[in-house]
Specification:
The protein is mainly α. The chain is built from 15 helices and no strands. It starts with 38 loop residues before the first helix and ends in a 5-residue tail after the last helix.
Length: 337
Amino acid sequence: MREPQRAPDLGAEPTASTVRQGEAPPASSEPPSGVWTDGSGLLWRIGGVVRTVRPHQWVKNVFVLAPVVFAKEVFDRNLLEHATAAFFVFCLLAGAVYAMNDLADIEADRTHPVKKYRPIASGRVPPNVARALAAVLVLGSLAWAYRLQPAFALVAAVYFAQNVAYSFKLKHVAYLDVSFIAAGFVLRVMGGGYATRTPVSSYLLVCTALLALFLGFGKRRHELSAAAGKAALQRAALEQYSERGLDLALALTGGATVVTYLVYTLDPRTEALFHTGTLWPSSLFVLLGVGRFLQLVKSRPKSESPTQEMLRDGPFVAIVLCWVVLVMWVVYRLKPG
């Protein structure tokens, strides 16, 4: 059966070996000789490498900035430079993990209606190139992390090891897979604290964990709905989930995220730190963000994932921006504390 011409959201390009114009190559196709030396072929391959490390997903690493922001130190140039460096360390590690994960999932991705267009699954990036890319990114990022702060390097190494364990074993265990994803977000926040030597509050860690669990369960709920009877082929853990169980998990973690954040804003220690008791209205945007994400989970069945779709969704982005502006205004009054 002929493959569809391209994935609607990913914009896959035809190779030089395409038989008919506009037709996507089969996943197992071999590159023609000279494709690495031909100008257009080389650029096409480089584009595949860039897509493999998922730059659009690096926004998740802004969690490393959270300790500095909520410690009222975001205008400290030295701390901000260290936090930015930590951000890019996690970006490089995340890119390596994405490449390794795609290598591990190559057969399953080829059965997925959208993921089969990923560079490794489609043949755009050969497996040996992806392995070399992952190795370079890991070694380079860990060396950078150690130079920045040894304690941060340890957190970064734990983050990488945890993701390797997830990619090759734990992602096949329902609920434990999402828990490990959430742990990665907590490690990002901890890493930001160590890299900048900024204390991290327990509220920040708990809110991060709950929000990450909520997003992870939303992604699994979306995948289960879109699997159409092929859950086991696309992700082994999916067949262990149920829509009812995931709906309950979403309700619990979404509600707990909003409540925990509201309690944090009303805590006397928070009011004393920020010298104001007016942070609590920002919890409205947290509630709106949770509700909008739930809408995306159930209303965008053809997207690759709701966590990716939310970054392109106007209302969701507007909610996040409103929350950021309000928090910055309340906490900083647009100037250093």
